[in-house]
Write a structure and sequence with these properties.
The chain is mostly beta strands. It is built from one helix and ten strands; from the N terminus they run E-H-E-E-E-E-E-E-E-E-E. The chain folds into two domains: 71 residues, Efflux pump adaptor protein, beta barrel domain (Elongation Factor Tu (Ef-tu), domain 3), CATH 2.40.30; 72 residues, conserved putative lor/sdh protein from methanococcus maripaludis s2 fold (Beta Barrel). The strands form two sheets. The protein has a five-stranded antiparallel beta sheet with strand order 1-4-3-2-5. It has a five-stranded antiparallel beta sheet with strand order 6-9-8-7-10, with no helix packed on it. The model has no long low-confidence stretch (mean pLDDT 84).
Length: 175
């Protein structure tokens, strides 16, 4: 049984994220069917044991409701963690070169390394460069070291690029 105006969202997180949460932590819940609907929520329960390998249960309770909400709907839950650095460059997640490895110590407060392609305007080529990422905000990566103001990075098709590859800069992309 449930109340029409008392919805909860149950999901699992890794230990690093669980370690950053406490009961009462604010969250934002976005409806998958209508991403324009974002509702306030708060962590109401934290699991003490993993329900699957390194996956700990979390429950958030919605503080507000909307006529579109139905039990069993898919949603996205977002937490806003403080970052170890407040200054840096926000880059799209698509700019990170997928390496297939994730630092096991990486978490919301632990900077980690990632690789991007930096554009050289003199040669019209790209070169791999390791940068330091300090967190994620709104599906963007906060890079705190390894990039300079004015530098451009590849943000689309990075899996097709290689070091020294000649590329054409698209000044006004239409996507």
């Amino acid at each position: 049984m449930y109340e029409d105006d008392a919805f909860e969202v149950a999901f699992s997180v890794n230990f690093a994220t669980l370690d950053s949460l406490v009961v009462g932590t604010p969250a934002a819940v976005r409806l998958a069917d209508d991403p324009s609907i974002v509702l306030e929520a708060v962590v109401s329960e934290l699991g003490e044991r993993a329900d699957t390998v390194s996956s700990f249960p979390v429950i958030v309770g919605l503080r507000e409701t909307h006529p579109s909400i139905r039990a069993g709907m898919a949603v996205e839950v977002a937490f806003e963690f403080s970052l170890p650095a407040e200054k840096g460059f926000m880059i799209p997640m698509t700019a990170a070169i997928p390496t297939g490895e994730i630092d096991r110590n990486a978490g919301p407060r632990t900077p980690s390394q990632l690789t991007v392609y930096v554009f050289d305007p003199d040669t019209s080529t790209v070169a791999q460069r390791e940068v330091t990422m300090a967190g994620i905000r709104d599906n963007q990566l906060l890079v705190i070291d390894g990039l300079q103001p004015g530098e451009r990075i590849a943000s689309k098709g990075v899996t097709f690029l290689h070091d020294g590859m000649r590329v054409k800069l698209i000044e006004n992309p239409r996507y």
